[in-house]
Structures are given as C-alpha cells and as structure tokens.
Amino acid sequence: LNGKAEGKRLIPESSELETRFPANSRTVFYATWEGSRVLNPDGRNVGVGLCNYSNDCFLNAVLQIILHCIPFARYLGEHLPLFSCVKDCVACGLARFIRYSMSSRQPFKPAWISFILEKAFPSHLLGAQEDAHEALNHILDALDSEARNGMSSSDRNFSDPLNGPRFSTPVEQLFVGTLRNQIQCSACSAILINYERFRELNLGIKKTGYDRRITLEDLLDDYFGSEVLNSFKCTNCKRTTQIQRSSRILRAPNLLLIQIKRFNSFGGKIGVHVNFNLRLDLEQYIHRGGESHVYELTGIVQHMGNAVEHGHYIAVVRGFDGRSYYMFDDEQRHRVSLSELHNTQAYMLLYVRCDAFRNSVSSSVALSAANETQNDAPTRNRVMKRPYIQISMDT
Fold it and tell me: What is the Cα–Cα distance from 65 to 317, expressed in whole angstroms?
C-alpha cells in the first residue's frame, strides 16, 4: 500500500480511558466526493454496473459496496498512485477500479481485478462461486497487510505488549472497534474483564426466530445480552462453576460491518427475513454513553439461493447524495423504493457512523476513530483477543 498509515494509541484500552483518547491519525477520510482531486461523480449519483462472465457476482456485489462507501472509496482512489506500484497490489487494483467507475458511462468488466482475487483469495478457482462475506474479508486482510508492509520499520516494530501496534492502518481506523467482555463467577462473584478488537459483528439467528419476522435490533440484543455458561473454572476461587457473560462496545468503529449468519455448518441457508432501519443507534450497546453512536446504512449484500455453494449475489447501495438507494445485479442497475429496500434479505450490511468524517475539504474535523470512545457457525467475531484481567471482586 503506497502511503503511510499512522494511528497512535495514546493510552491502553485496559484503563478504559482510551475512549477519551482514540487512535489519532494524520490520515483524513471524507464523507462526500466534494473537493476530490482525482474523483468526480460529474453530476452522477451512482456508479455503473459490472459485467459477469465467470460467476463473479459475489465479487461484483462486494466491489459495489466498496465504491459507494465514500470514506473508504475516496481514500483508496485518492491516496494511491495509479501506475507507480510495480507489485500489482490489491490496493492499487481497487484504486484503479474506483477511478474507472467514476468515469465510465456503461457497465464494464474490470479485468485487472482478477489479480486481486489471486493475491487476496488464493484458494479461489476461476469460475467458482464464492461467499461474498469471505471475499470481502480477504480483501480487507490484504489491504491491511499491504499497509503494514508500507510502514517504516520503526512504526511497525514499536508495540505495547498489551495493546499491540502503536500505529494503525486505514482499515483499522475505519472498521475496527473494541469490545469490553465481562464475566462474573456465580460462586465468588469475581468480575473478570477482557478486551477484543473487532472488524465486524457476526450476528446469529436463533431457531426461535425462524417462524417470525425479526429485526436487526433483535439480533443485536441477543449478541450483547447476558448468557450463563456452565463448567467454567474461575481463576479467583479455583472452582468450576457457572458464570454470567456479557459484552459491550467500548469503542465503536467508524464503519460498522455486520454479517447476518445465514449459513449453518452444513452449508444450508436460514432464509428468515430480518428487518433493518436506515439509521442504527448503538447507544444501548455502548459501555459508557455520552456521545452519539448513530449510523446510516450505505450498503447491503444479499444472497439469493438456498445454499452457500450456489446462488446469486446482488448489492443495494446508497447513492452519492446520501438519500436514494440503488440495486446492482451485475450489469443491471435501478433505483429502489423504500419498500423494496426493506424487503431485501440482507446477508451483510455496511453502516457509516454519522459525524465521523469530514464533509468537505474545508472542514476542520478529521476522522475521530470512533469519536473517542447464534447459529452454528463457529466464529463469533473477527477479533484479536487478549487474556482476561481481574478488575474487581465482590463478596
């Protein structure tokens, strides 16, 4: 990744004061295209369709939500030299895609994207259907790795043993938040705390909800609700007993990526409709309130079909005006009504945090790094875990 990502973590998350001292960065992200040096919608409110010649619908859907997530797309398109990179990196391939999309008047096939899959998704076979969620995470992993490789050795090597790297990458600055996990022993009442950074929330659908319409807030309530676990060995009293576990968001991300876990361990699909809102307020899931944690929907990926191995992916994205929404089905594109939008069977949702980005070049507010702040699938979050730390004990 050409361009240095510098985000300094000023104090450790374990103090819980880090919400007041976020990962500061000289990288600036914008909420609109206004004032862009190289990207100009030229009066258009949306990108163009993408041709599909080899079962690439999963990739086309992912590319559309990247393009229409303005803070992310503008960073990639503006900050990366188009022809100076001789390594065919993923970031430069995406930059070329974004720039071409902003100038093209008709659907096209970004042939150079094939090397993105080769580098970011080496297990992919040409013509094979893939999971769009997995593809997006491979791309984010590759961008993160390229950014780290582009850092100076001093930036990359300086680290705190508890809190990890001192400098954060653009992917971290945009997508990463921090969870505060708490467990309490039922025998001795000891409270243990640990922290984990997350890049997405993976929300399961309980079987009790299969026969009714449920909401995204229902899934969030389940995810952040308390649960009782048996056979836990307490590090304080040394007994094996029950514990109560709960999680809250210590620091919210600027781009909130949500996956609804629609595929079970056998590859079958859970087709329950999940209602979602255009605005999402996370306040009730925040460890300590006092700041706004409101998000607006910018992109949806929908899977159409009965199993993960086959089917079709489409994207629904917010237009550049921030008000209208459009459906992309490979080459096809049309504006959708609110009723059509809410009938989308979401598999992934991407939300942008309000007031987290500059509105124009002249604005004085830069990215604030979160403004200071189940089903059968085995993975709860894409996270980086740390050991539990005993905080207090009540008897």
Answer: 6
Mean pLDDT of all residues belonging to the chain: 79
Across the range 21-42, mean pLDDT stands at 71
Q: What is the pLDDT of residues 183-210, one digit of tens each?
A: 999 889 889 899 999 999 999 998 766 6
**Per-residue pLDDT, 85:** 64
Query: What's the pTM value of the predicted model, to 2 decimals?
Result: 0.82
| Parallel, antiparallel or unpaired: strands 346-353 and 294-307 | antiparallel
The structural domains of the chain, ordered by start, are: 7-393 (3.90.70.10)
Cα angle 31, 258, 61 (rounded to 5 degrees) comes to 75
- The model's pLDDT over 347-394, given as tens digits with 9 standing for 90+, comes to 999 999 998 887 744 322 323 322 333 333 334 444 433 333 333 333
CA end-to-end span of the chain, whole Å?
A: 53
Beta carbons within 10 angstroms of residue 196's beta carbon: 18
